[in-house]
Amino acid sequence: MRIPISDIIINPGRRGIRPEQVKKLADSIAVVGLLNPITLDQADTLIAGLHRLEAAKLLGWTEIEYTVSGVEGLEAELAEIDENVVRTDLSTVAGSDLLLRRKEIYEQLHPETRQGKRNRQTVKNEETSLLTAKPFSQDTAEKLGVSRRTVEKKIKIAKDLSPDARKVVEDHAIGTEAAFHLARLPQEQQAEAASLLASGVISSMKGYRTSTTESSTEAPPFQLGGKCFATIQESVQDLKNMDKDCSCTPDIFLAAITEFVKRFQSEISCYADEYYAPVFPALSPVQLRYLRQQMDTIRNAADQLYILIEGANENE
After folding, report:
1. Cβ distance 133 to 113 under 8 Å?
2. Regarding predicted confidence, which is higher, 171 or 125?
3. How high is the pLDDT of residue 104?
4. Among 206, 73, 85, which Cα is nearest to 144's?
5. What value does the mean pLDDT of the chain take?
6. 195: which residues sit within 8 A by CB, 6+ positions away?
7. How far apart are CA 196 and CA 190, in angstroms?
8. Sheet order of strands, 46-48 included
9. What is the distance between the alpha carbons of residues 280 and 270, in angstroms, rounded to a whole number?
10. CA-wise closest residue to 48 among 22, 21, 87
11. DSSP at 173
């Protein structure tokens, strides 16, 4: 079937076209023809094939071949998003925003997959899934050919990245992993961290986490005096100096412990995000007891170290 191009309706809010892709498609269509017709709904609204449509316009066509999809409404929008996300390389922010919208639509179409309902169903029956559709992250991961964890990271970016940080991520093509760690920061810190990353002051978000300290009313009771060298050669000579004092000091010890605590806090907070949270209500009493034992092991190790240090002080 063919339709006048002027009769096709394009919904506002679609992703922008990529001129270079349109030009490549136009060159191909001019040689071999339109191999895959565009897809419209019953009301002649475009569902899939925006770049093919623009390529046809570039070639001066007034009509184009099309197929009619039986899906309407939210299902049509979901199909349009899948066309955009799966077939086109999108920026970190744009791709994340599309996935967030996909999540909203998917859970409206399949309300049984929403997190709250999914958790209750899992608790009721641990052996048999009561879902009539796959969870959003699984369905999306399979369509994109990525892990469910990657999907959850993109949702986090879309939900929690501040407007200023989003702009930096877009302008400097910052990738998903770094943007995810930006989104996990308090919003008032995100723009600063993004700018440091974009300018190369830090090479990764780990560099930002280790170069900043948690807010505190009391200054750390230690100082680390840094050496300044006029040239790289001087710094190398200092490293090679076998006579310098390399023994540990209270300041070095406390600084090392502080760095460890910051790393630990950062790592353990990962287990409270959206990837793991859905399983919390499904843990059995036996599993909860085991988890408590693991947490006690961490506390006991810290207590034993402190008792050792405290005892050494008392013996002085």
Report:
1. yes
2. 171
3. 85
4. 85
5. 79
6. 168
7. 10
8. 2-4, 63-68, 38-40, 46-48
9. 14
10. 87
11. T
Q: Are 53 and 64 in contact (CB under 8 A)?
A: yes
Specify the pLDDT at position 109. 79
- Report the distance separating Cα 158 and Cα 268, nearest Å: 22
The single-letter code of the amino acid at 4 is P
**pTM score above 0.85:** no
Q: Which amino acid is at 81?
A: I
Nearest to 3 by CA among 29, 39, 54: 39
Contacts of 205 (CB under 8 A, 6+ apart): 178, 181, 182, 193, 197
Which residues sit opposite 39 in a β-bridge? 48, 67
> How many CB atoms within 10 Å of residue 63?
13
**Per mean pLDDT, which of 12-16, 60-64, 73-77 is the most reliable?**
60-64
| Percent helix / strand / coil, the chain, rounded to 5 | 65, 5, 30
Structure tokens at 53: 């449509």
> For 240-269, how does the pLDDT look when each residue is reduced to its tens digit (9 = 90+)?
676 766 678 888 888 888 888 888 887 887
Give the position of tokens 């990837």.
Answer: 275
